[in-house]
Amino acid sequence: MYKRFIELKKESILYRINPALKIIFMFIIMLLTIIFNSPLPLGILFISLILLSLSGGAITNLRKILPLVIILMLFTIILWNIILKGKTHPFYIYNYPIFIDVFLYSIGMSFRVSTVIVAGVILLSTTSNEDLNYGFRKIQIPQRVTFALVYSLMLLPALFETISVVQMAQRARGYTIRGRGPISRIKKYIPLIIPTILYLLKNANHISMALESKAFGYSKHPIFIKEYKITPLDIILISVSIFITIMALYLRILGYGVVFHRL
Predict the structure, then answer these.
(1) Same domain for 192 and 245
(2) In this structure, how many other beta carbons lie within 10 angstroms of the beta carbon of residue 148?
(3) 44/5 Cα distance (integer angstroms)
(4) Domain enclosing residue 160, as ranges
(5) What is the DSSP letter of 141?
(6) Do 128 and 154 contact (CB within 8 A), yes or no?
(7) Does the residue 139 lie in any domain?
(8) Residues forming beta bridges with residue 96, ordered by sequence position
(9) Is residue 109 assigned to a domain?
(10) What does pTM read for this prediction?
């Protein structure tokens, strides 16, 4: 039995919220990151999610991806300062011009990327695969699309374990992926990729046979083992979320929370 890719926190308050509403919250957070591009509102949103992860018990999973988040933020800041030219007076770092407005915009973009990642980790940390399937179906996502999304999350542990087994098998044969340069290392990864792809193809065939034997897709209205009812807490949370979204759109129309008038 494979372990879940992200550890589930059933003891958290967020776990008891309706899965469909949690998915809607995820979309609202993504919308808020698109509305603003200034580092101030996006930074506030990012810090709010970090605090939410503390109360929701997802901070353990966030620590696992913290290096990835930091690398993505630094890469985003560097990339935008390279490709975008600003209108303010620049300052120089090693004779390279850095514009204040572009620098602020790049920080906002780094918060945008990291906020979406953190929101996704919180969702997966407080929602089981079965509840994700329930939530996607309740917001009218097609059944086949829902199955593909949820099952891909279920297969991630199996995929990583397969890669680990292939690596150990190759090392036992005296094969190493270490090389002198990046091109040499890429070539050495080919013997690892081929067995992994063959495993995925074999597994996909087994999945298709299992789905056919269970008449997957025959009914457009499947029955769920567990049904969620809308609670007063759910109503309060969705009302607050809608209010925040409307206020964010209003502030954006007035010109607040933006460095450049673009996404």
Answers:
(1) no
(2) 10
(3) 28
(4) 156-227
(5) -
(6) no
(7) no
(8) 93
(9) yes
(10) 0.75
Residues 233 and 210 placed together within one structural domain of the fold:
no
Residues 233 and 119 in one domain: yes
Contact call for residues 134 and 20 (beta carbons, < 8 A): yes
Asked if residue 170 is part of any domain, the answer here is yes
Say if 141 falls within a structural domain.
no
CA distances from 46 to 9, 33, 111, 118, 245 (A): 21, 9, 7, 8, 15
Q: Are residues 107 and 71 in the same domain?
A: yes
Tokens of 257: 């929370």
Q: Are residues 103 and 233 both part of a single domain? A: yes
Domain check: are 188 and 258 in the same one? Answer: no
Which segments of the chain does DSSP mark as H helices, in order?
19-35, 39-56, 59-83, 100-125, 129-138, 143-172, 182-213, 232-254
Indicate if 53 and 166 belong to the same structural domain.
no
Query: Are residue 19 and residue 96 in the same domain, yes or no?
Result: yes
CA distances from 94 to 75, 76, 245 (A): 18, 19, 41
Q: What is the pLDDT along the chain (263 residues), one digit of tens a residue?
A: 445 556 666 667 777 888 889 899 999 999 999 999 999 999 999 999 999 888 767 888 888 888 888 999 999 999 998 888 888 878 887 778 888 888 999 999 999 999 999 998 888 888 888 888 888 888 888 877 777 777 777 666 666 677 777 777 777 777 666 656 666 666 767 777 777 777 777 777 777 777 666 666 666 666 667 778 888 888 888 899 899 999 999 999 998 988 887 76
For residue 209, give the amino acid letter.
Answer: M
Neighbouring CB atoms inside 10 A of 156's CB total 13
Distances 91 to 96, 99, 105, 127 between C-alpha atoms, Å: 8, 7, 15, 46
